[in-house]
Amino acid sequence: MKLMILGATGLVGGHVLSKALASTAVTLVITLVTRCMLLVPLKKLARLALY
Q1: CA-to-CA distance for 22 and 18, rounded, in angstroms?
Q2: Is this model's pTM higher than 0.70 or not?
Q3: What is the pLDDT of residue 16?
Q4: DSSP code of 20?
Q5: How far apart are CA 35 and CA 24, in angstroms?
Q6: Chain centroid to CA 22: how far?
Q7: pLDDT at 4
Q8: Euclidean distance between CA atoms 23 and 45, whole angstroms
């Protein structure tokens, strides 16, 4: 499943992002962000597209 998250650096969006990256059912996560996302572990960045 592909997932798009708007506001992934906010409180709710950050929680949704961490759950999505932990799930094996999610193959790609696309996010629209305005702040830096340094809290995402590097091994999970392969499935994350930042715009």
Answers
A1: 6
A2: no
A3: 92
A4: H
A5: 26
A6: 10
A7: 92
A8: 14
Q: pLDDT for 1-51, tens place per residue? A: 999 998 887 889 889 988 998 899 998 888 887 766 555 555 566 666 666
Characterize 3-29 residue by residue with b for buried, 16 or more Cβ atoms within 10 angstroms of its Cβ, and e for exposed. Answer: bebebbbeeebbebbeebbeeeeeeeb
Strands (E), 1-51: 2-6, 28-32, 48-50
Per DSSP, 14 falls in state: H
pLDDT score for 9: 79
Distance of CA 47 to the CA centre of its chain: 8
Closest CA to 49 of 12, 1, 2: 2
To which residue do tokens 């996302």 refer?
37
